[in-house]
């Protein structure tokens, strides 16, 4: 009945526009316009997220890495109890910049600071102490799991870099080994943490968000965000006097900015 009621109006519109062909073009143009506006909206939301969060356990080297990226110089650091932020331009050739935010790694603080900044995250650098990794693997995986099942992180899917720091030390584990061990631990956590809340803000209902693909062993390629691993050293092979080895990290920051 409604279609019948609209037909006289559509017929009149066709006559005014010169026939059905013009009307089809008009409908197509409207569809293109709506698609373009939706694309702009999505891009706008992404470009409004300008923060690169530095996460990780205590003593992973986040604050020294933060200082090195900003000034290139070494400085003594202490365990952070609050966030530090600064505007960082990854490339001298481009005018784009991001806001680097160094978040505390202490167990009692890290989730509340992540809660505060996660919605603004364009990218996340998760810093791992490659020397202490074997000893800390369960704690590292636990924190990373909490980040990866967070509803806001899953929805926005910021680029994720696992920065395997302290590679200047002989005992440091390789990025490849760290990736394999983390995948194994996260796979175990999927089962053991089945009663955990879905997200930090408690907005989820039911069980936690599914990490990876059901029925398959977990690996990072199953996540909605692109995950990369790099080896780096905020301290550098010559300690305080030498240059840091952050080239792979800096290249990644140019890419995500």
From TrEMBL:
It is a single-pass membrane protein. The chain crosses the membrane at residues 20-39. Keywords: Endoplasmic reticulum, GTP-binding, Membrane, Nucleotide-binding, Receptor, Transmembrane, Transmembrane helix. Coiled coil: none annotated. InterPro entries: P-loop_NTPase, Small_GTPase_ARF, SRP_receptor_beta_su. GO terms for molecular function: GTP binding. CDD domains: SR_beta. Belongs to the SRP receptor beta subunit family. This is Signal recognition particle receptor subunit beta.
């Amino acid at each position: 009945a409604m279609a019948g009621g609209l037909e006289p109006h559509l017929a009149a519109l066709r006559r005014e526009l010169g026939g059905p062909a013009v009307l089809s073009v008009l409908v197509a143009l409207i569809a293109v316009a709506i698609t373009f506006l939706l694309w702009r909206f999505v891009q706008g939301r992404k470009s409004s997220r300008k923060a690169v969060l530095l996460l990780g356990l205590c003593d992973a080297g986040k604050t020294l890495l933060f200082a090195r990226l900003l000034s290139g110089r070494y400085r003594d650091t202490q365990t952070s109890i609050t966030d530090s932020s600064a505007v960082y331009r990854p490339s001298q050739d481009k005018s784009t910049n991001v806001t680097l935010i160094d978040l505390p790694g202490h167990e009692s603080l890290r989730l509340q600071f992540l809660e505060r900044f996660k919605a603004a995250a364009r990218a996340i650098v998760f810093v791992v102490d490659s020397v202490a990794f074997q000893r800390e693997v369960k704690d590292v995986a636990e924190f990373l799991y909490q980040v990866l099942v967070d509803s806001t992180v899953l929805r926005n899917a910021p680029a994720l870099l696992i920065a395997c720091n302290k590679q200047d030390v002989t005992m440091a584990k390789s990025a490849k080994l760290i990736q394999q061990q983390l995948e194994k631990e996260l796979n175990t956590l999927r089962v053991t943490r089945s009663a955990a809340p879905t997200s930090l803000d408690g907005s989820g209902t039911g069980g936690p968000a599914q990490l990876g693909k059901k029925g398959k062993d977990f690996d990072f390629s199953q996540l909605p965000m692109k995950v990369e691993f790099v080896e780096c050293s905020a301290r550098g092979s010559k300690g305080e006097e030498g240059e840091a080895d952050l080239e792979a990290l800096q290249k990644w920051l140019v890419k995500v900015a």
